[in-house]
Protein backbone atom coordinates (compact mmCIF):
# COMPACT_ATOMS: atom_id res chain seq x y z
CA UNK A 1 0.00 0.00 0.00
CA UNK A 2 1.32 3.43 -0.97
CA UNK A 3 0.67 5.91 1.84
CA UNK A 4 -0.77 9.34 1.17
CA UNK A 5 0.42 12.86 1.92
CA UNK A 6 -2.62 13.67 4.03
CA UNK A 7 -4.16 12.23 7.16
CA UNK A 8 -7.68 12.06 5.76
CA UNK A 9 -10.90 10.64 7.26
CA UNK A 10 -12.46 8.28 4.75
CA UNK A 11 -9.21 7.65 2.89
CA UNK A 12 -9.35 4.53 0.73
CA UNK A 13 -5.73 3.59 1.49
CA UNK A 14 -6.64 0.68 3.78
CA UNK A 15 -9.27 -0.82 1.46
CA UNK A 16 -7.39 -0.58 -1.84
CA UNK A 17 -6.81 -4.34 -1.88
CA UNK A 18 -10.57 -4.86 -2.10
CA UNK A 19 -11.35 -1.81 -4.21
CA UNK A 20 -8.80 -2.71 -6.89
CA UNK A 21 -10.72 -5.93 -7.54
CA UNK A 22 -13.55 -3.82 -8.93
CA UNK A 23 -11.67 -1.11 -10.84
CA UNK A 24 -11.55 -1.92 -14.57
CA UNK A 25 -8.73 -1.10 -16.94
CA UNK A 26 -9.02 2.08 -19.00
CA UNK A 27 -7.08 4.89 -20.63
CA UNK A 28 -7.72 7.35 -17.79
CA UNK A 29 -9.17 7.31 -14.28
CA UNK A 30 -11.55 10.19 -13.54
CA UNK A 31 -12.05 11.02 -9.85
CA UNK A 32 -14.49 13.84 -9.03
CA UNK A 33 -13.72 13.56 -5.28
CA UNK A 34 -9.95 13.64 -4.83
CA UNK A 35 -9.72 13.28 -1.07
CA UNK A 36 -6.27 12.02 -0.10
CA UNK A 37 -5.58 10.69 -3.62
CA UNK A 38 -5.20 7.17 -2.19
CA UNK A 39 -6.80 5.68 -5.30
CA UNK A 40 -4.46 7.50 -7.67
CA UNK A 41 -1.47 6.48 -5.56
CA UNK A 42 -2.49 2.81 -5.50
CA UNK A 43 -3.51 2.24 -9.12
CA UNK A 44 -1.58 2.31 -12.39
CA UNK A 45 -3.70 4.03 -15.04
CA UNK A 46 -1.96 5.74 -17.98
CA UNK A 47 -3.54 9.07 -16.98
CA UNK A 48 -5.69 10.66 -14.26
CA UNK A 49 -8.21 13.48 -14.07
CA UNK A 50 -8.45 14.33 -10.38
CA UNK A 51 -10.93 16.91 -9.15
CA UNK A 52 -12.28 18.32 -5.93
CA UNK A 53 -14.46 21.26 -4.96
CA UNK A 54 -11.96 22.22 -2.24
CA UNK A 55 -9.53 24.74 -3.81
CA UNK A 56 -6.94 24.29 -1.06
CA UNK A 57 -6.76 20.56 -1.65
CA UNK A 58 -6.25 21.03 -5.39
CA UNK A 59 -3.73 23.82 -4.79
CA UNK A 60 -1.70 21.50 -2.55
CA UNK A 61 -1.58 18.85 -5.26
CA UNK A 62 -0.66 21.35 -7.96
CA UNK A 63 2.13 22.89 -5.89
CA UNK A 64 3.69 19.47 -5.32
CA UNK A 65 3.21 18.57 -8.98
CA UNK A 66 4.93 21.74 -10.21
CA UNK A 67 7.29 22.74 -7.39
CA UNK A 68 8.13 19.59 -5.43
CA UNK A 69 11.52 20.61 -4.03
CA UNK A 70 10.78 24.20 -2.94
CA UNK A 71 7.42 23.08 -1.56
CA UNK A 72 9.04 20.28 0.46
CA UNK A 73 11.66 22.63 1.90
CA UNK A 74 9.04 25.22 2.85
CA UNK A 75 6.62 22.71 4.36
CA UNK A 76 9.40 21.01 6.35
CA UNK A 77 10.33 24.40 7.82
CA UNK A 78 6.72 25.16 8.75
CA UNK A 79 6.42 21.79 10.52
CA UNK A 80 9.75 22.19 12.37
CA UNK A 81 9.06 25.72 13.61
CA UNK A 82 5.42 25.26 14.66
CA UNK A 83 5.23 22.14 16.79
CA UNK A 84 2.86 23.26 19.57
CA UNK A 85 -0.79 24.17 20.06
CA UNK A 86 -0.24 27.93 20.15
CA UNK A 87 1.58 27.75 16.82
CA UNK A 88 -1.22 25.69 15.31
CA UNK A 89 -3.83 28.35 16.05
CA UNK A 90 -1.48 31.08 14.81
CA UNK A 91 -0.99 29.22 11.51
CA UNK A 92 -4.73 28.59 11.27
CA UNK A 93 -5.48 32.30 11.77
CA UNK A 94 -2.99 33.31 9.08
CA UNK A 95 -4.38 30.67 6.73
CA UNK A 96 -7.91 32.00 7.22
CA UNK A 97 -7.18 35.75 7.31
CA UNK A 98 -4.26 36.45 4.97
CA UNK A 99 -5.86 37.00 1.57
CA UNK A 100 -2.48 37.85 0.04
CA UNK A 101 -0.74 34.62 1.01
CA UNK A 102 1.13 33.02 -1.90
CA UNK A 103 -0.17 29.73 -3.25
CA UNK A 104 2.91 27.77 -2.20
CA UNK A 105 2.69 29.08 1.38
CA UNK A 106 -1.03 28.35 1.45
CA UNK A 107 -0.34 24.78 0.35
CA UNK A 108 2.34 24.32 3.02
CA UNK A 109 0.02 25.71 5.69
CA UNK A 110 -2.82 23.48 4.50
CA UNK A 111 -0.62 20.39 4.79
CA UNK A 112 0.50 21.50 8.25
CA UNK A 113 -3.07 22.11 9.42
CA UNK A 114 -4.44 18.79 8.22
CA UNK A 115 -1.49 16.93 9.76
CA UNK A 116 -1.97 18.65 13.14
CA UNK A 117 -5.78 18.88 13.18
CA UNK A 118 -7.99 16.63 15.27
CA UNK A 119 -7.95 13.20 13.57
CA UNK A 120 -6.80 14.83 10.35
CA UNK A 121 -10.23 16.35 9.79
CA UNK A 122 -10.40 19.01 7.09
CA UNK A 123 -13.39 21.13 8.11
CA UNK A 124 -14.49 24.58 6.97
CA UNK A 125 -17.16 26.90 8.33
CA UNK A 126 -19.71 28.68 6.15
CA UNK A 127 -17.36 31.64 5.74
CA UNK A 128 -14.71 29.35 4.30
CA UNK A 129 -12.49 29.32 7.38
CA UNK A 130 -10.62 26.19 8.41
CA UNK A 131 -11.95 25.45 11.91
CA UNK A 132 -10.77 22.00 13.03
CA UNK A 133 -9.24 22.11 16.53
CA UNK A 134 -5.69 21.07 17.37
CA UNK A 135 -4.80 17.49 18.27
CA UNK A 136 -1.77 16.94 20.49
CA UNK A 137 0.60 14.36 19.01
CA UNK A 138 3.87 12.93 20.29
CA UNK A 139 5.61 13.84 17.04
CA UNK A 140 3.60 15.05 14.04
CA UNK A 141 4.66 13.17 10.93
CA UNK A 142 6.16 15.07 8.00
CA UNK A 143 5.43 12.99 4.86
CA UNK A 144 8.58 13.65 2.84
CA UNK A 145 8.65 10.24 1.13
CA UNK A 146 4.94 10.48 0.38
CA UNK A 147 5.47 13.90 -1.22
CA UNK A 148 8.24 12.49 -3.42
CA UNK A 149 6.10 9.54 -4.52
CA UNK A 150 3.14 11.82 -5.19
CA UNK A 151 5.23 14.15 -7.36
CA UNK A 152 6.26 11.21 -9.55
CA UNK A 153 2.69 9.92 -9.96
CA UNK A 154 1.33 13.43 -10.50
CA UNK A 155 3.22 13.64 -13.80
CA UNK A 156 0.36 11.55 -15.24
CA UNK A 157 -2.38 13.66 -13.64
CA UNK A 158 -4.43 16.75 -14.34
CA UNK A 159 -5.82 18.42 -11.20
CA UNK A 160 -8.89 20.64 -11.42
CA UNK A 161 -10.99 22.49 -8.86
CA UNK A 162 -14.52 21.59 -9.92
CA UNK A 163 -17.69 19.98 -8.62
CA UNK A 164 -18.76 16.53 -9.73
CA UNK A 165 -21.08 17.89 -12.42
CA UNK A 166 -18.28 19.81 -14.13
CA UNK A 167 -15.87 16.91 -13.76
CA UNK A 168 -18.19 14.22 -15.11
CA UNK A 169 -18.93 16.43 -18.13
CA UNK A 170 -15.28 15.86 -19.13
CA UNK A 171 -15.53 12.05 -19.24
CA UNK A 172 -14.49 10.56 -22.57
CA UNK A 173 -14.80 7.15 -24.21
CA UNK A 174 -12.34 4.73 -22.63
CA UNK A 175 -12.28 6.51 -19.26
CA UNK A 176 -13.02 4.82 -15.95
CA UNK A 177 -14.96 6.85 -13.38
CA UNK A 178 -14.44 6.29 -9.66
CA UNK A 179 -16.51 8.29 -7.18
CA UNK A 180 -15.91 8.46 -3.44
CA UNK A 181 -18.25 11.28 -2.34
CA UNK A 182 -19.02 12.33 1.24
CA UNK A 183 -20.91 9.33 2.56
CA UNK A 184 -24.64 9.17 3.16
CA UNK A 185 -25.43 9.65 6.85
CA UNK A 186 -21.96 10.93 7.82
CA UNK A 187 -20.18 14.25 8.31
CA UNK A 188 -20.16 16.15 5.01
CA UNK A 189 -18.86 19.66 5.80
CA UNK A 190 -15.39 19.11 4.33
CA UNK A 191 -15.94 22.33 2.41
CA UNK A 192 -18.45 25.18 2.60
CA UNK A 193 -20.90 23.19 0.44
CA UNK A 194 -22.53 20.29 2.29
CA UNK A 195 -23.38 17.02 0.53
CA UNK A 196 -26.93 15.95 1.38
CA UNK A 197 -29.47 13.50 -0.07
CA UNK A 198 -30.23 15.74 -3.04
CA UNK A 199 -26.56 15.74 -4.05
CA UNK A 200 -26.35 11.96 -3.57
CA UNK A 201 -29.29 11.54 -5.95
CA UNK A 202 -27.89 13.99 -8.49
CA UNK A 203 -24.56 12.18 -8.50
CA UNK A 204 -26.18 8.77 -8.89
CA UNK A 205 -28.32 10.06 -11.76
CA UNK A 206 -25.24 11.24 -13.64
CA UNK A 207 -23.34 8.02 -12.94
CA UNK A 208 -26.27 5.92 -14.14
CA UNK A 209 -26.38 8.00 -17.32
CA UNK A 210 -22.66 7.45 -17.93
CA UNK A 211 -22.99 3.73 -17.24
CA UNK A 212 -25.88 3.48 -19.70
CA UNK A 213 -23.65 5.17 -22.28
CA UNK A 214 -21.04 2.43 -21.84
CA UNK A 215 -18.65 4.13 -19.42
CA UNK A 216 -17.18 1.95 -16.68
CA UNK A 217 -18.28 3.45 -13.36
CA UNK A 218 -17.44 2.49 -9.77
CA UNK A 219 -18.73 4.31 -6.67
CA UNK A 220 -18.16 3.88 -2.94
CA UNK A 221 -20.58 4.91 -0.21
CA UNK A 222 -22.20 3.88 3.05
CA UNK A 223 -24.35 0.76 2.99
CA UNK A 224 -27.68 2.53 3.46
CA UNK A 225 -31.15 2.07 2.00
CA UNK A 226 -30.78 5.27 0.00
CA UNK A 227 -27.49 4.24 -1.61
CA UNK A 228 -28.70 0.74 -2.48
CA UNK A 229 -31.79 2.29 -4.04
CA UNK A 230 -30.11 4.98 -6.17
CA UNK A 231 -27.53 2.48 -7.42
CA UNK A 232 -30.05 -0.30 -8.01
CA UNK A 233 -28.82 -0.82 -11.59
CA UNK A 234 -25.25 -1.43 -10.39
CA UNK A 235 -23.75 -4.60 -8.93
CA UNK A 236 -23.24 -4.24 -5.18
CA UNK A 237 -20.21 -5.46 -3.24
CA UNK A 238 -19.95 -5.01 0.51
CA UNK A 239 -16.92 -4.34 2.71
CA UNK A 240 -16.19 -3.09 6.23
CA UNK A 241 -13.86 -0.16 6.84
CA UNK A 242 -12.40 1.66 9.84
CA UNK A 243 -13.97 4.93 10.93
CA UNK A 244 -12.18 7.80 12.66
CA UNK A 245 -14.92 10.46 12.50
CA UNK A 246 -18.59 10.43 13.45
CA UNK A 247 -20.84 8.02 15.31
CA UNK A 248 -18.77 4.96 14.44
CA UNK A 249 -15.47 6.62 15.33
CA UNK A 250 -13.14 5.12 17.85
CA UNK A 251 -10.54 2.43 18.21
CA UNK A 252 -11.55 -0.72 16.39
CA UNK A 253 -14.80 0.79 15.08
CA UNK A 254 -15.98 -0.49 11.71
CA UNK A 255 -18.65 0.64 9.29
CA UNK A 256 -20.32 -1.14 6.41
CA UNK A 257 -19.63 0.23 2.94
CA UNK A 258 -20.89 -0.53 -0.54
CA UNK A 259 -18.89 -0.60 -3.76
CA UNK A 260 -21.32 -0.09 -6.64
CA UNK A 261 -20.01 -1.29 -10.01
CA UNK A 262 -21.67 -0.66 -13.36
CA UNK A 263 -22.67 -3.99 -14.86
CA UNK A 264 -20.81 -3.67 -18.15
CA UNK A 265 -17.49 -3.04 -16.37
CA UNK A 266 -14.61 -4.82 -18.11
CA UNK A 267 -12.24 -5.71 -15.29
CA UNK A 268 -8.50 -5.66 -15.82
CA UNK A 269 -5.30 -5.33 -13.83
CA UNK A 270 -4.68 -1.71 -12.85
CA UNK A 271 -3.38 -2.00 -9.30
CA UNK A 272 0.06 -0.54 -8.64
TrEMBL record:
<feature type="binding site">
    <location>
        <position position="8"/>
    </location>
    <ligand>
        <name>S-adenosyl-L-methionine</name>
    </ligand>
</feature>
<dbReference type="GO" id="GO:0043565">
    <property type="term" value="F:sequence-specific DNA binding"/>
</dbReference>
<dbReference type="GO" id="GO:0009307">
    <property type="term" value="P:DNA restriction-modification system"/>
</dbReference>
<keyword id="KW-0808">Transferase</keyword>
<dbReference type="InterPro" id="IPR012263">
    <property type="entry name" value="M_m6A_EcoRV"/>
</dbReference>
<dbReference type="GO" id="GO:0009007">
    <property type="term" value="F:site-specific DNA-methyltransferase (adenine-specific) activity"/>
</dbReference>
<keyword id="KW-0949">S-adenosyl-L-methionine</keyword>
<dbReference type="InterPro" id="IPR002052">
    <property type="entry name" value="DNA_methylase_N6_adenine_CS"/>
</dbReference>
<protein>
    <recommendedName>
        <fullName>Site-specific DNA-methyltransferase (adenine-specific)</fullName>
        <ecNumber>2.1.1.72</ecNumber>
    </recommendedName>
</protein>
<dbReference type="Pfam" id="PF02086">
    <property type="entry name" value="MethyltransfD12"/>
</dbReference>
<feature type="binding site">
    <location>
        <position position="180"/>
    </location>
    <ligand>
        <name>S-adenosyl-L-methionine</name>
    </ligand>
</feature>
<dbReference type="GO" id="GO:0006298">
    <property type="term" value="P:mismatch repair"/>
</dbReference>
<dbReference type="GO" id="GO:0032259">
    <property type="term" value="P:methylation"/>
</dbReference>
<feature type="binding site">
    <location>
        <position position="52"/>
    </location>
    <ligand>
        <name>S-adenosyl-L-methionine</name>
    </ligand>
</feature>
<comment type="similarity">
    <text>Belongs to the N(4)/N(6)-methyltransferase family.</text>
</comment>
<keyword id="KW-0489">Methyltransferase</keyword>
<dbReference type="InterPro" id="IPR023095">
    <property type="entry name" value="Ade_MeTrfase_dom_2"/>
</dbReference>
<feature type="binding site">
    <location>
        <position position="12"/>
    </location>
    <ligand>
        <name>S-adenosyl-L-methionine</name>
    </ligand>
</feature>
<dbReference type="InterPro" id="IPR012327">
    <property type="entry name" value="MeTrfase_D12"/>
</dbReference>
<dbReference type="GO" id="GO:1904047">
    <property type="term" value="F:S-adenosyl-L-methionine binding"/>
</dbReference>
<dbReference type="InterPro" id="IPR029063">
    <property type="entry name" value="SAM-dependent_MTases_sf"/>
</dbReference>
Amino acid sequence: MNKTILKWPGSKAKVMGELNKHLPAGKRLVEPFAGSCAVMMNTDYPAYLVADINPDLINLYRQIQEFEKPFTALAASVFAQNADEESYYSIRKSFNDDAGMTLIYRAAYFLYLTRHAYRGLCRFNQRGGFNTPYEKQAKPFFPVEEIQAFAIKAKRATFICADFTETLAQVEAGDVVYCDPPYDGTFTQYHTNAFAEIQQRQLAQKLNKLANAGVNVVASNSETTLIKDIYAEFDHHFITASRSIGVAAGKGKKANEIIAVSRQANLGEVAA
